[in-house]
Q: What sequence folds into this?
């Protein structure tokens, strides 16, 4: 099922499933963890699609599958119209260079034994881009773009703060000239006063070179400042996909509303009693509930929700906003 | 430390558990925590430097700041848990008794009993080889002198009280068998077993999803109302603190830079660091093309601190005078104190 036409899209993901076998042994069948269980989405050139949800919803797995770091169990990933789902197909195309990743933890994402120059040049070497001299020039240019001094190139990751390390990780991702950057919680490990610096840097870089972002985050307040469209994921499936303003102003899925309500906001004063909270925890993706996967936590759940899994369909009167709920707003 | 004060602490452990709301429970004055710099015994680094505040029974104090600002070390000093070779000086009066300088035996009477603490990562704070029920019961055996059987029964009641479903079965679970939110609930049950007068909560919701965070904040507020305890809630997130605190202390590089009732702090922040923290926080309610930033980075606590205001290097309003002397924390409005020579100008 395709929700939006995929023509002209940079990335088109169709019915993607990523399943992992868990446990199992000689005499015991492995169980299947359905981390991503049928997801469709597209990203246009220069667009930022935010992927939000709680831990365990599959957002990181989806991002890694798009980056080619996990194999797809089923479904397709097309990049500029070409199917790159299989690793062999990806190798024949430009997708490995053109899709780069920034990870959450800048402390573990950088090799501590490599100086920054080697870290940011490595993708160029792997993709056989440029001469030695050109790579060195590119490294200096990258330092300037991400706001680090040129002498940073001769230093090692441990000499930098978390925010500076995330700048190095961004420089590495930009190094081979990608079209799509998958940023997986790039701000979560940073101090609050540093987060806005990195957020602004990501916006500047995007404006300068028509980058697309798949921005994975649990923080809707951050997403509010960066995303063009927002996809909300729950237990392996998208429950809502909408342009940013529509999602924040008129959330259609009860889960989206619960996420928005749960965000602490300055100026609302102390905890108001009677605020609607999503109860309980995210159920295990090893045994997702039948019917709508959100029904055990949903304030609007009816008998039908326990039996029929709702499809992702436009909200009433808002064709660009789709939600998977029998009782969507 | 006089012996007489020691016995006063022991006595307070069996005093009525409920103190009247509004009466000062905790008075911290000129509290400092120093560590030797790079092994040199002569030179020290103050990771907490001259911190002072009061906390009344039944009230919630939010302590806000970024990593390395000294907010967690302040809490550890209140429990006598500053790791060696750290040295604590100043005064901490809890229910009228001076805590600084007392012996370990007296601290043991207080910890987990009159003053309890919950931490960010319940997986590392709970014992992985004991069941959740055993850990809650242990507190009751140690401090209330209950028998194992009675403590186990009461532990189940406590797990129910913090909203753990099927508490009888869950009491037999090990921490790794619970979700992050359930583990945090279990840790809260352990902390509240003895109905403490003061709960120190150090980033208790930071590792949790937002929906679960909202549940835990609501739970803490509800239990506080029941027990009448004071809460010192430590967080890097002003948004979270605004949901729970009556009063707020903002710390930077070991010092309090602003102290105010929560409403006043958000309506009229005076310190440039506080203003920066509020402005840079991504918000649902306003959107800017570019977010305002606080330039530079959080200083390393071990770095040598130059004379003058510690925030001067990052401050958009800094003038030459800021580097002359450390600005004192002055009360500019009732209950609203700020350490900035330019505040109000």
A:
């Amino acid at each position: 099922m395709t929700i939006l036409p995929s023509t002209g899209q940079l990335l088109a993901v169709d019915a993607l499933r990523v399943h992992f076998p868990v446990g199992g042994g000689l005499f015991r069948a492995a169980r299947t963890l359905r981390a991503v269980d049928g997801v469709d989405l597209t990203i246009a050139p220069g667009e930022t699609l935010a992927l939000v949800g709680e831990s365990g919803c599959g957002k990181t797995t989806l991002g890694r599958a798009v980056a080619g770091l996990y194999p797809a169990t089923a479904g397709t990933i097309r990049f500029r119209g070409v199917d790159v789902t299989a690793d062999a197909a990806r190798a024949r195309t430009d997708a490995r260079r053109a899709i780069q990743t920034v990870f959450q933890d800048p402390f573990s994402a950088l090799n501590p034994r490599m100086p920054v120059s080697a870290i940011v040049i490595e993708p160029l070497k792997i993709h056989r881009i440029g001469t030695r001299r050109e790579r060195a020039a590119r490294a200096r240019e990258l330092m300037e773009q991400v706001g680090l001094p040129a002498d940073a190139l001769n230093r090692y990751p441990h000499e930098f703060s978390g925010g500076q390390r995330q700048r190095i990780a961004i420089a590495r991702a930009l190094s081979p000239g990608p079209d799509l950057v998958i940023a997986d919680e790039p701000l979560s490990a940073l101090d609050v006063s540093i987060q806005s610096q990195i957020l602004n840097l990501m916006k500047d870089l995007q404006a300068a070179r028509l980058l697309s972002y798949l921005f994975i985050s649990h923080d809707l307040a951050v997403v509010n400042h960066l995303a063009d469209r927002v996809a909300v994921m729950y237990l392996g499936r998208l429950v809502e996909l909408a342009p940013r303003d529509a999602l924040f102003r008129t959330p259609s899925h009860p889960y989206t509303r619960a996420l928005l309500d749960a965000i602490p906001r300055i100026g609302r004063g102390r905890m108001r009693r009677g605020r609607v909270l999503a109860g309980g925890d995210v159920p295990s993706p090893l045994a997702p509930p039948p019917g709508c996967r959100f029904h055990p936590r949903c304030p609007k759940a009816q008998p039908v929700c326990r039996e029929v899994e709702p499809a992702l369909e436009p909200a009433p009167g808002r064709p660009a906003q789709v939600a998977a709920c029998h009782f969507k707003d | 430390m006089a012996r007489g004060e020691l016995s006063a602490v022991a006595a307070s452990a069996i005093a009525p558990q409920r103190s009247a709301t509004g009466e000062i429970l905790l008075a911290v004055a000129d509290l400092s925590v120093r560590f030797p710099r790079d092994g040199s015994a002569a030179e020290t680094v103050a990771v907490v430097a001259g911190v002072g505040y009061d906390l009344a029974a039944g009230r919630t104090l939010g302590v806000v700041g970024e990593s390395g600002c000294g907010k967690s070390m302040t809490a550890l000093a209140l429990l006598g848990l500053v790791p060696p070779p750290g040295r604590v000086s100043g005064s901490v009066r809890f229910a009228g008794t001076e805590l600084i300088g007392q012996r370990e035996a007296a601290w043991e009477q207080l910890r987990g009993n009159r003053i309890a603490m919950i931490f960010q990562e319940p997986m590392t704070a709970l014992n992985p080889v004991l069941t959740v029920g055993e850990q809650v019961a242990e507190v009751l055996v140690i401090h209330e002198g209950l028998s194992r059987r009675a403590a186990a029964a009461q532990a189940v009641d406590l797990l129910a009280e913090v909203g753990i479903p099927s508490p009888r079965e869950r009491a037999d679970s090990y921490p790794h068998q619970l979700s992050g939110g359930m583990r945090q609930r279990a840790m809260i049950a352990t902390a509240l077993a003895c109905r403490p007068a003061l709960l120190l909560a150090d980033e208790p919701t930071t590792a949790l999803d937002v929906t679960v965070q909202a549940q835990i904040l609501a739970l803490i507020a509800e239990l506080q109302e029941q027990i009448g305890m004071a809460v010192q809630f430590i967080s890097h997130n002003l948004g979270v603190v605004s949901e729970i605190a009556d009063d707020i202390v903002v710390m930077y590089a070991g010092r309090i830079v602003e102290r105010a009732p929560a409403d006043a702090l958000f309506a009229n922040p005076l310190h440039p660091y506080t203003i920066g923290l509020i402005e840079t926080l991504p918000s649902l309610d306003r959107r800017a093309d570019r977010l305002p930033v606080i330039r530079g980075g959080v200083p390393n606590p071990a770095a040598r601190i130059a004379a003058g205001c510690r925030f001067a290097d990052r401050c958009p309003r800094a003038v030459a005078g800021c580097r002359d002397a450390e600005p004192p924390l002055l009360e500019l409005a009732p209950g609203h104190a700020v350490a900035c020579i330019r505040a109000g100008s």
